Amino acid sequence: MTDASVTTATIPPAPHASVVGREAAHFGKLAAEWWDPNGSSAMLHRLNPIRLRYLRAAIDRHWDLDDRTFAPLAGKSALDMGCGAGLLAEPLARMGGTVTAVDAAAESIAVARVHAERRGLTIDYRAGGVEAVAGETFDLVCSLEVVEHVADARAFVAGLAAAVAPGGLLVMSTPNRTWWSRLALVEGAERLGQIPRGTHDWDKFLTPDELSAMIADAGFTVADVTGLSVGASGFVLGGSTALDYFVTAVRVD
């Protein structure tokens, strides 16, 4: 069931420097189908379990938790930057976190609020960019498949880093800028309709070295880089970063 009945005509876009208007408009048009596993966000639905697996392992490792704990974020705050309609924010809330979630598309935020309310989840949803949390800090800051869509990647990473509380954790993911990502994501998935046309601009993809340098410039050190690839049974975590990758970072002491 989708939330196509949600109207967002009265919600103005947030005037934040990190937001690219055409990007927000593109994803805003997809908002009503966000929770449909067979709709335009079907790829994200297939990707989400592997994202959660990586994220849970990073959380357990960073805070030295038992991986059998049902609420690893209990007593902790979490930020999902570039949350869409809440596909990651809702699991973070179910992990026990006090969740704030931000997205450039006001339409997506409207759908996210309705979906969370129907499931009894309390999430602080906000429309805008990283500027929407300026001056606030969180124990966990996540931004998955987002940095390639912002106006200034370096400034965006600095904004994410500023939002991480002392002793906190930063987790990001993004496509790598390789011939394989161009072939698989732009020439392949978009042309075949697996991902909506216009979703990716290959020139804005970042290599692991480029993203790691931005993170280092923001005062953090990269603790882990793990590749995301496609295997016979779907998405898998592994050593190859040729398609996509995750990065975990912590503040330099």
UniProtKB/TrEMBL annotation:
Keywords: Methyltransferase, S-adenosyl-L-methionine, Transferase, Ubiquinone, Ubiquinone biosynthesis. Its EC number is 2.1.1.222, 2.1.1.64. Pfam families: Methyltransf_23. GO terms for molecular function: 2-polyprenyl-6-hydroxyphenol methylase activity; 3-demethylubiquinol 3-O-methyltransferase activity; polyprenyldihydroxybenzoate methyltransferase activity. Signal peptide: none annotated. GO terms for biological process: methylation. Pathway: Cofactor biosynthesis; ubiquinone biosynthesis. It comes from the Bacteria. It catalyses: a 3-demethylubiquinol + S-adenosyl-L-methionine = a ubiquinol + S-adenosyl-L-homocysteine + H(+); a 3-(all-trans-polyprenyl)benzene-1,2-diol + S-adenosyl-L-methionine = a 2-methoxy-6-(all-trans-polyprenyl)phenol + S-adenosyl-L-homocysteine + H(+). Gene3D superfamilies: Vaccinia Virus protein VP39. S-adenosyl-L-methionine binds at residues 51, 82, 103, 144. The keyword Transferase applies. It is an enzyme of class 2 (transferase). Belongs to the methyltransferase superfamily. UbiG/COQ3 family. O-methyltransferase that catalyzes the 2 O-methylation steps in the ubiquinone biosynthetic pathway. This is Ubiquinone biosynthesis O-methyltransferase. It comes from Sphingomonas endophytica.
